[in-house]
Structure formats: C-alpha cells, structure tokens
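Project standup — Tuesday

K.O.: blocked on the structure for the chain from last sprint. Re-posting the sequence here as requested.
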Amino acid sequence: MRDFFHLSWMIMLKDLRVYFKHPTNIVVVLVPSIVFLLIQALGAAAVGRSPVALVNQDNGIEGQRIVQSIRDADVFRLSEVDATQAQTLYDQLRVVAIVTIPAGFTNRVEAHQPASVDVLVNNLNLDFTNDIRRAVPDAITRYYQAQGDASPIKVTMNETDLRAVDVELFQYAALPAIIMLLLIGGLITGGLSTAREFEDETIKELLLSPVPSAAIVVGKVLAGFITSFCLGAIILGGVTILGWVHPSGIYWLVGLLVVALTALFGAGLGVTIGASIRHVMPVIVVSLILTFYLFFLAGGVGVLAFEPTWLQQIAVFDPLTYGTHALQMALFYQSSDLLLRDGIVLALSALATLGIGSAAVRRVI
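H.V.: unblocked you, prediction finished:
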C-alpha cells in the first residue's frame, strides 16, 4: 500500500511539472472565469441602479423633502442637475429618465392640492422602464413615511428579510464563477495529463514500468485535484479580503470542503475525457464546452429558483447546482441549509467520475 501511494505521488508530481511547463494551460483555466466575471460586473453596473437625472425646480421645504427621499431610497444613480443639463443627458442616453420636482410643488402640497412629480422615461427596453416605474413610487412612499403623523397619507413600511445580509448582484455572480473555475481546472489538468500520455506515447513507458494502472489513475486525478483546489482556495481567500463574502467559523471549512469536492469531481471527469479522446486540443475544446453547459444548466447566470421550470428540472442532475448552492449558503449567509444534501451529491458525483475515469483508463490500456 505504501508503494502504491508513493507511485501515485510521483506520477502526480510529474504531471504537475508538465502542467506548469505549459503556460497556456493556466490561461485556458483562468480566462473563461475572468471573462464571465467581467461580463457580470458590466451587467451589474448597467442594471443595478438605473442612471437618472433629478431636477428640482421648487425652492420650498416640501421640494427639499421629496428630493431627500429620492436620495435615501438609493434606487438610482442620481445626477442632480438643472432642466437643460438633464435634457442633454437624456438626449445623449447618459440617463434613462428625468425626474422633475416642478415649481410650485411646495405651495400645492401646503394648499392640499394635487402635486405631481414628473417622470420622463426613455423606454428603450422593458427592464429599464420597469425599474423606473417601481422605484419612483417607492421614493414617494418614503416621502410620506418620513413626515410621520403630519403626513396626509399614513404610510408605514415594515420590511422583513429572509436573509440577514444583502448581497450585491456582482457578488452573487462571483461564487458560480469560482465553481466554473474549479471544474475547468480539474478538467484541463486531468484531461491534458492523460491525453498527453497517449499523444506523446509516453503511456508505453508507464505500462512497461512496474506501476499498477490504478496508481496511474490516482496520480493523475490528484494532479488535477491539487491544482484546482489550490487555485480555488486562493481565489476564495481573495474574494474574502475584497469583502465579497464574509465566511466565519465553521463555514470557512464548509466552503473549503465544497471547493475540494468540486475540484475532485472535475479532476475525475477530466481523466475520463482525456482517456476517451487521447488528443490534447480536442480535450481542451470538449472540456470548455462541457464546463459551459454544466455551468449554465446549473443556473450560473441567475437565481435558479426563478428560472424556467424546464431548466430547474435539468439542474437537479447537474452537480454544479449543489456546489453553487452550498457555497452561497455558507459564504454569503452563514447557513447550513441543505448542506447534507449538497455534500452527499457532490461526494457521490466525485466518486462516480473517479470510477468512470479509472474504467476508461483501464479499457484503453
């Protein structure tokens, strides 16, 4: 048994040396996740808070109050300008709407007459338009609430949150990107190390040496696992330093366990693909395509519970679904919700890929 693990360890070290001698391997692993995060960052900046020009033409107290309510609502990226500047921003598509507090607003409110807040919306798409339609009434509601008993309309807002933490859209997208990175890392490392043995015909040297085929498989899976796990752990530490996630106590270990199981799943699957295809470039192409399919089918670009029913039904069979959910619960919300289910599915998926990978290598040998 000691000799078996020693041989597996040496094969792993050899594969790691070969892997790091090819910088393109690292690029292939990192670029898809970085590109996805960049796209999500740009999308979050575009739709998180709509850009709006705020024009206050009223000098009275009520005009100041409603302007302050709009600021406090924190639902817009406000540019407080005059009417001419607002129209220029609107015409140049630098704001999606102009919210105007008209002159005489205070006088009409004090006289108990209808007082309007004018909204000019560029309805270039329904997403922006609906954001404005929902957000302006929210700001007006806050205006009435801030007046307390003096308000002519008694409004009390009582919000009860399911989670203790509010997570920004971009932060929410970071954890699926880490899961994607782990899967690509395992697939590329395990797949290329296996395929390269056949393409370069160095597999013959291994077979002529007194090395059990099982040790070959274990060594290659370990190489893929270690590269993916270390990279995932480093990135997890980085996003924690940046303040995107706030794990504490036992949930740090939960996060690392999920990273380890996902990395192991990817490494086993990579060995399977490498032994089946046995050529480096096709392995890279298949690994990337498979990663993207598994990532998107797991609801990687949104909240799976709000996705179409057919996608939710498919996601049940996707291991990345459980890895993403477990990481989100542990690192965002310090919750163990369905952790046992997620851990069992990831562990069984990893064991299944190890078995299939071992069988694929044995069959080819």
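K.O.: great, moving the ticket to review. The radius of gyration is 28 Å. The chain has a mean pLDDT of 84.
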